[in-house]
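Hi,

I'm pasting everything inline rather than attaching a file, because the server keeps stripping attachments. The sequence lines come first, and each chain or strand is labelled.
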Amino acid sequence: MNIPPAYVLTLSGILFALGVIGVLIRRNAIVIFMSIELMLNSANLALIASARMLGPAQEALRGHVFVFFVIAVAAAEVAVGLALIVAIFRSKESIDVDEVSSLRG
Amino acid sequence: MILLEVVQGGGLFSYAPLIIALPILGLIINIIFGRRLGERFVGLVASGAVALAFVIAILQFLALQAFPEGATIPIAEWISIGQLSVPWSIKVDTLSTTMMLMVTGVSTLIHIYAIGYMHEDVRFQGDPGRYARFFIFFNLFVAAMMVLVSADNYLMMFVGWEGVGLCSYLLIGFWYEKGEAGIGNAVAGKKAFVTNRIGDFGFLIAMFLIFGAVGSLQFDQVFHWVHEYGLANVGVLTAATLFLLLGATGKSAQLPLFVWLPDAMAGPTPVSALIHAATMVTAGIYMIARSAPLFEVAQSTANLVAWIGAATALFAATIAVGQFDIKRVLAYSTISQLGFMMAAVGIGAYVAGIFHLVTHAFFKALLFLSSGSVIQGVEHGHHHIEHGDGEPFDPQDMRNMGGLRSRMKVTSWVYLIGALALAGLPPLAGFFSKDEILADANMENMAVYIMLAIAAFLTAFYMGRQILMVFFGKARSEAAAHAVENPPVMTIPLIALAGLAIVGGALNIPGIHTLTDWLEHTIAHVHATEFNWLVAGLSVLFALIAIGFSWLLYGRKTMEEGDPDPLRRILGPIFVGMENSWWIDELYDFLFIRPYIAISWFFADVVDWRFWHDWFHDSVLGSAYRNGSRWLAWVFDLRVIDGFANGLGNATKGAAQRLSVLQTGYVRNYALAVLVGGLLVLSYFIFG
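And the predicted assembly:
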């Protein structure tokens, strides 16, 4: 089975757009967080697709390596992000991001 | 042998700077050690320095025998600005050496005399500490006079010119706290100085004119230029010589600037003898003789010189007739004799002028010193009989004298010789020099001759009057009756000068003309005037008649104490005029001094105080300043400067207020902004 990379890239774009929309329109911090994960993973997908387009050459491994880095960084980000959400919840009794607008000028 | 070689090699000229340096050395020694080492030391150093300068002058004379054209000894580069180059160098030629010999020779004798005179004078005036100061000034004067006569350019001459003027001022006011109302002497010094400044102003302008025309102040170059282009530039030369003449009238006490000299008699008598009779006052004559090439081209000025000289000679002689102060008679006589010299150089008889200058220095110094001797003798007599009634007594008034012949033998003899020399009786010095002037005037300008002849007649008359009043008849005061002769330190210089007054005429005796031949090396176109028996005979006859008149009036009948002057009866108001110097001082006071003071007051009070200070300074400047600073403070600072600073702050604040609307605080807005930014960057790379 040989899926053309264009399809994969298109899927990746759709996923990224979904993630963006999720971040922009949702107020629940957890959901926004999930949307960010979606964007990260769509990017991973695009990297994998690009690596495949280059073929089995030695250089293609770079794309894979990138993906692993992103996954690792995302894991760390999850830890920090969840800690922030917990801290917000403790002070606001809510995880609605619109409640956290004290930086309003 | 060695001396002869040095003389013939011209090496002696190199000693010339010493003639200035020695008196300066003397005065420096006296400044440092004078007070500590006492009068004897001071007098010895001062006289020794001048005597050595005289020796140097003799060496220059010897050197000139081998090299009559002289030499210029450069000492230093002085001023060098653009085209103007004035070196400090000494000119040794026959004219300057004549002056050097005369000045240092007469100075030496007067210095020696002053050792004795000032010893008494400082005690009489009550401040013995001033003894050293007198000799310091005296040496300074000799140094300045040497600078004047040895100059090889006008500017260096001017330095000496001013230097002798300064010494004259210092020495006239030597007893500055004495005199009329306690400031009389100081006022006399000031008068001499200010009057001389008018002349000095003329000298300065003349120098500017000469430099403007010639581009140099060196005598050689100026005279060369006059020789080449003089006839095409008579205008500028006339102007320059007129201003030089103004300078000469100031320094040599000629009309109209002679008024300072009679008052200058406030100085101690050696000062009157040295500065105000023998040397300094002849500087104007010397300067004109030195500038002979200029005056020869500017004939109209030369004529004016002759007229001024003749008028001064006559005018001052009439005043001398009516004076009672023994020194004032001599002062006016000096002015008159300077007029003779001036007339001589004016008519081109430079040799006769210089000749008379030298002989006059001998006999007038003699007369002044003898008068000092007389005054001091009378002062002694006054002290001798003083009974403490404190009655004011003038030891210089001839009415208080009389019969001194028997009490002061040496003084009366030398005075007689000096007086006869001045009166122009053969074979004394004054006869030959005055006669040469008269003979020249007789040939060149009859009117000048007549004026000078009348002046000569009056000269013989007033000298006869003075001799008869002072030395003959009977004593008209207790002081005169007890007068005593002075010590040898004073009388020996008198005898030496009397000797010179007798034989001085040999310098330029008719038929041999030593001085004429001598000066011919320096002054062009000198001519030996042939002896004119008619002129000489007439002048001797006039002199004898004048002396006869004076005997008729003052000698035949003994003058008693308190008698009026016999001449007053005969001449009436004319005598009052003579006695009061024809009210020249009062005239100048009315014409110049009062208007000057009025103008000064006007400028001080109205212009300076009321206009500048009260109105301009206080009202205009003050209010302008106050209003200006008020405007700056309240308007400019508060509105403009502060407005700018505050406006900057307000603008920043307003902008921040408006921009802060963008900060909603909602995360999604920021995220959207990031998205839009990312998209923009992307689109730039993709489409840009």
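Residues 21 and 35 of chain A are 8 Å apart (CA to CA).

If the labels don't parse on your end, tell me and I'll reformat.
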